[in-house]
């Protein structure tokens, strides 16, 4: 099974409760983008408008690999942007910036390609199991893209109080999906770490070069330098590690209770069940797992508590360390997330010849998910065991 052969194979449309307010002070736009991450698109738009990227507020982050439509707000009207990868459409005004709370969910239309006959035959069975038993509400690769770098999570280094390592993972760990400029700068940083004068002189202009300029004058202030990273990136670093802790907790909970099938992903291994006993299904429908932070109280999560504690023990950390006391503007915020998800309106189209893979079939899948859940988890579950 192949996903995302072309952007139109993975279409995501944000479902929002936005209602225009003619007297509002913020302009709300629909952003249609292809083969661009949300933050990349906002960077392009802000540069074209002569604004700071932080002035633009997206309700959510959408995957880079696909065709997506989402909303964002701006404190002023925006000019046309000359980039064929994105389109803007003014929807009206809002009294407040758009936030994640503005999103109701996301509507997906996904084309599964290069399907063998046995895969096509398995799809209806797997879809029916999803409708009946749901599936684990894991975070998928998009949450971890470019952040773990194969060298460990930046968020893990922060929790350990190793701010130099956190900076090094950000500034000196290139990965394949970065631009040539970003890769070049990070390779230089890896070679010249500590020689800030030489590194600053040789790096190309970028936000990372500005961090190196700060280190020239403050060579021991690792924490202060980290806090100068763009807030959206700092939040992603924290969220990636927090999301991994959630995934590991959920994986352990499933493995301890039912038969499962392991599935590899970018940050490790996930455990998927095919079905649940009725008693367990009834209980887990309502179960939430913690997104851990210093305010997490394990007693409030009886189903998850022993498994989260096992994850923390394996990592050699405590909940208290997640407060990051040496950082003023960066930290983990405790919250909770449903353990399971049920796609709404899950439909499989009729198998069709796949024009991109002669001899194979394609199937279009449609469904809707609540805010924060990953459509690619549904496709992972649909492809289970084939």
Overall, the morphology is globular
Strand content: 15-25%
- Using only C-alpha atoms, the radius of gyration works out to 22 Å
> pLDDT average, as an integer?
94
CATH topology of the domain at 19-97: Alpha-Beta Plaits
Helical content band: 25-40%
Biggest beta sheet summary: 9 strands, mixed
Question: What is the CATH level 1 assignment of the domain at 19-97?
Answer: Alpha Beta
User: What is the chain-wise order of helices and strands?
Assistant: EEHEEEEHEHHHHHHHEEHEHEEEEEH
Span from first to last CA?
9 Å
DSSP, total strands: 15
CATH architecture of the domain at 19-97: 2-Layer Sandwich
The number of helices is: 12
- Strand pairing plus helix content: what structural class? alpha+beta
Poorly predicted ranges (pLDDT <50, ≥5 residues)? none
Can you give a write-up of this model?
There is one protein chain. With 386 residues, the protein is an alpha+beta fold. Among the domains are: 19-97, Alpha-Beta Plaits, CATH 3.30.70; 156-233, Hypothetical Protein Yqey, Chain: A, domain1. Helix content is 34%, strand content 23%. It is built from 12 helices and 15 strands. It has helices at residues 38-49, 117-133, 154-159, 163-171, 180-192, 196-202, 207-217, 222-226, 231-255, 278-284, 305-315, 375-382, and strands spanning 10-16, 26-34, 57-58, 67-74, 86-94, 103-115, 135-136, 261-265, 268-272, 288-291, 335-338, 340-341, 344-348, 352-353, 361-370. The strands form 4 sheets. Strands 1, 2, 3, 4, 5, 6, 13, 14 and 15 form a 9-stranded mixed β-sheet that branches. A two-stranded antiparallel ribbon has the order 7-12. A two-stranded antiparallel sheet has the order 8-9. A hairpin with a 2-residue loop joins strand 8 and strand 9. Helix 6 runs antiparallel to helix 7 and helix 9 (231-255) packs across helix 11 (305-315). The longest helix is centred in the middle third of the chain and has 25 residues, at 231-255. The N and C termini lie close together (9 Å). The mean pLDDT is 94.
């Amino acid at each position: 099974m192949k996903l995302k052969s072309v952007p139109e194979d993975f279409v995501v449309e944000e479902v929002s409760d936005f209602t225009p307010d003619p007297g509002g002070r913020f302009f709300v736009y629909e952003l249609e983008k292809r083969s661009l991450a949300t933050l990349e698109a906002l960077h392009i738009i802000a540069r074209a408008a002569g604004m700071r990227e932080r002035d633009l507020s997206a309700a959510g982050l959408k995957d880079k690999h696909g065709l997506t439509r989402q909303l964002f707000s701006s404190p002023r009207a925006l000019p046309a942007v000359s980039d064929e990868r994105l389109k803007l459409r003014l929807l009206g005004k809002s009294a407040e910036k758009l936030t994640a709370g503005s999103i109701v969910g996301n509507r997906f239309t996904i084309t599964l390609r290069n399907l063998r006959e046995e895969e096509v035959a398995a799809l209806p069975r797997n879809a029916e199991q999803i409708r009946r038993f749901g599936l684990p509400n894991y975070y998928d690769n998009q949450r971890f893209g470019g952040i773990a770098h194969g060298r460990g999570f930046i968020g893990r280094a922060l929790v350990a109080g190793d701010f130099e390592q956190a900076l090094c993972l950000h500034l000196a760990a290139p990965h394949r999906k970065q631009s040539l400029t970003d890769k070049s700068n990070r390779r230089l940083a890896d070679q010249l770490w500590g020689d800030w004068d030489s590194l600053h002189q040789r790096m190309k202009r970028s936000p990372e070069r500005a961090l190196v300029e700060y280190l020239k004058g403050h060579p021991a202030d690792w924490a202060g330098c980290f806090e100068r990273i763009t807030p959206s990136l700092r939040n992603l670093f924290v969220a990636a590690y927090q999301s991994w802790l959630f995934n590991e907790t959920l994986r352990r909970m499933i493995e301890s209770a039912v038969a499962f099938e392991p599935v590899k992903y970018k940050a490790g291994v996930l455990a998927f069940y095919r079905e649940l006993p009725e008693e367990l299904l009834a209980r887990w429908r309502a179960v939430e797992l913690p997104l851990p932070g210093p305010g997490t109280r394990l007693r409030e999560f009886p189903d998850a508590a022993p498994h989260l504690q096992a994850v923390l023990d394996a990592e050699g950390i405590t909940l208290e360390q997640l407060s990051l006391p040496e950082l003023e503007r960066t930290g983990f915020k405790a919250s909770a997330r449903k353990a399971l998800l049920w796609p709404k309106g899950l439909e499989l189209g009729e198998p069709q010849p796949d024009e991109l893979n002669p001899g194979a079939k394609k199937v279009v899948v449609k469904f809707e998910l609540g805010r924060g859940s990953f459509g690619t988890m549904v496709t992972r579950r649909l492809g289970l065991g084939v």
